[in-house]
Amino acid sequence: MLTDSQTNKLFLADCLQSKQPKFFQRFEKVLNDCNINFHFLPGTKDIWAVDFMPVQISTDKFVQFTYNPDYLQPKKYQKTISNVDSICKAINLTTTKSKLIVDGGNVSRTTDKVIMCDKVFHENKHISERELIKQLKDLFEVDKLFFVPWDINDFTGHADGMVRFIDSNTVLIND
Predict the structure, then answer these.
(1) Which among 34, 31, 39 has a CA at the least distance from the CA of 10?
(2) Model confidence, pTM
(3) Residue 112 three-state SS
(4) Which CA distances in Å does 142 have to 59, 115, 133, 136, 159?
(5) Low-confidence ranges of the chain (pLDDT < 50)
(6) CATH classification code of 4-173
């Protein structure tokens, strides 16, 4: 599995500029000062592209999970769900589609391991835990998949705010 540091393109939600203009101005300056090129994902409705866009597994393999989290089910939040198929088509990205409900923010990864919050079981009640784990390991192409308890005070249930791989054998934990 590719780590974030092994990727070679940075994509930002195109709505970031309008929804968070002050942040975007500062962020753009940092990216430019560091000579980091970036591209925009067209037609986004939410700034958190990592949550809804496909997870990159290898140089040319991307898994597009179903992005339909429970916290976006109220009608007022439905309008924030971007059309991932349309975005992927616009940037010529071919994906492997999965019916599993997974937010990209709940995937903390290194080359051979993935950590997720166990909220993924809540989101995928329609299949057994055993089958869910098997499918996730197959899709991520890893043998090691770990689950940390979901802090229900974090409505998203994302692992990326709790744990982060520093290298293949070291994890940083947020308290």
Answers:
(1) 39
(2) 0.91
(3) coil
(4) 15, 11, 11, 8, 17
(5) none
(6) 3.75.10.10
